[in-house]
Amino acid sequence: MNKIRNRIVFVLLMTFLVGSLLQGCSGAETVKSDKYTETTLKLKNNNMYKTNFQGVLEDIRDEIEMPEQLYVDEDNNISMKFKANGIITFIKGRLYGVNKEGETIFYDMYYNREISKKIKVRYNIANREIDDQCEIETLLDIMKGINLREAVYNWDSEEYGILFYGNRKWEAGTEGIIYVNGKGDKREEEALENTISTASMSLYIPEKEEIITPKRYILVKDINEINGKAYNGEDRINVDASMNMSSGEFEILDNGEVVYKLNNNVRYYLKIIAAAAGSREYGLYISEDDGDTWGEVNYEPLDKMGQAAFMIFIDEELGFISLATNGGKNGYLYRSEDGGYTFEEINYNESARNNNSSIDIDIEYFDYPEKVYKKDGFLYMEVGQGADGDYKGNCKGIYISRDCGNKWEFLKISNTTSDGD
């Protein structure tokens, strides 16, 4: 009798151990009830920058058999949050699809990293019609077409959020609309001309949606033709950008945007694309017909938010932008050598110290670039002290560059304005 009892105990124990081993290998736990089946599984692809929502789906499919084509429930959305380093912290949403038996299956997802590093997926059979407009592939294609790390770079927040709607109504006048084609091409809409209803993905800072305009991505097949309207690389631009100006002049508009006229044909325009707490994010545009039509050069040329203090192009390749921060107390200098397609921050004071270690004044007071100009074959720059300057009567520092603005030398102190051409 004891032998039989021991064998039963042994069999039960082995069954438990094998089950635990299998569960440990897969990382998934499945519970069934009369109403639904729930599987809890480890989220291995947990970085939004690296694998985005595609990685989440792959993890779920590894443990749960799902239809190849999935849709977003029109009464819900896919909500996700992630840290500045890309780590996913929250997922909530519902998918559905039709299995091989022709049954419609709901998949409710929930993940909260503060509670567990595993995602729960609850699924059951439900009757409903499939809405082709709500395919999850739309979200995946949108994410393929954007670089999330770059998209949030200038926001400087600890956490970001994503909302995907299978069908959302956007009223005329909505800002932050960005059309993408899934191939890396994008175009910003200054404000919607007409009300539209479409699938869209919103990228935002949680609890700051009213302060910082979310980026609202809409997938289109042809970036050059949207809603039947042809697009020739031109955007609606503030009429003030076509004001009367002389060549070599820049003008700061009342709203903080900046226009620079290079010659009789070419103008550059720093256009505000986002604003928050007195700081702005700019896009760079160019006109080659003296302001009649405009095309986008760089959607986000600068890696910081602030207020543009000046924009100057020496020629059609070499250009400079000064960005004021901290309430105008200091600024940053940016340089482009490819016509504005890319910009690099230039640390002119560090460069000046390296080029002249015997400087006998504290050049750190000069922290607000005000002007760059060319004279006698060299570049010169006036650097002020910003809104809080009081060094030597709030004088300016004059710098010189002999290599087109890549490296700078401190030249002298000046209390007068230059006569640069």
From TrEMBL:
Transmembrane segments: none annotated. It comes from the Bacteria. The keyword tRNA-binding does not apply. Residues 1-27 form the signal peptide. Keywords: Signal. InterPro entries: Sialidase_sf, WD40/YVTN_repeat-like_dom_sf. This is Exo-alpha-sialidase. It comes from Clostridium bornimense.
